[in-house]
Amino acid sequence: KQEVTQIPAALSVPEGENLVLNCSFTDSAIYNLQWFRQDPGKGLTSLLLIQSSQREQTSGRLNASLDKSSGRSTLYIAASQPGDSATYLCAVGTGANNLFFGTGTRLTVIP
Amino acid sequence: EAGVAQSPRYKIIEKRQSVAFWCNPISGHATLYWYQQILGQGPKLLIQFQNNGVVDDSQLPKDRFSAERLKGVDSTLKIQPAKLEDSAVYLCASSLVDGGTEAFFGQGTRLTVV
After folding, report:
1. Would you call B43 and A44 a contact, using CB atoms and an 8 Å cutoff?
2. How far is B8 from A22, CA to CA, in rounded Å?
3. Sign of CA dihedral B60, B61, B62, B66
4. Cβ contacts (< 8 Å) between B6 and chain A: which residues?
5. How many other CB atoms are found less than 10 A from the CB of residue A42?
6. How confident is the model over B72-106, as pLDDT tens digits?
7. Which of B91, B98, B99 sits opposite A43 (nearest CB)?
């Protein structure tokens, strides 16, 4: 069964810093990996989707990488802003199009 | 493009009562999911539909939970009778039918069982 782990569980950084969130998974037979953002009391907002054949995806200040063979993905956030404060979840997509989620990293960007 | 719609947003019920949640996926999305997210945890899949057929319901507590997707569009998730441990956010998501496509989530329904 696929297990997804996210480290750290919580992270506080001053505004303007670059930061990296980590995600690891146990079964490398994946279709894709998706990063989501979740604000308190809200649903999930899709940030980036990386197909299994891709190494990275970029959207604005966000860059996600995927190393399938080692079971790892990172989400890089450049020049962090207070509005980036949220919980970031990674989810691994399997052949059945099911998503296995990590427990998330709670990010606080301090003004 | 309209997103995934869910209702109600919040629900408080007493244990042993029943409750139902509704989801309307993005138009044209054949795959629909219901996830349960307990506070401090990542979402866990309860059931996955493709059109109006069930693909995966292996983690659905079938003694108390049921779900249906009539006509391959809207879906309802029901809990009867509810237990305290069912307190969670129930998230609905949809995606195109092909494997490897992006999933889009609704705002969720926060259920509190007292």
Report:
1. yes
2. 34
3. negative
4. 43
5. 15
6. 899 999 999 999 999 999 999 998 875 567 889 99
7. B91
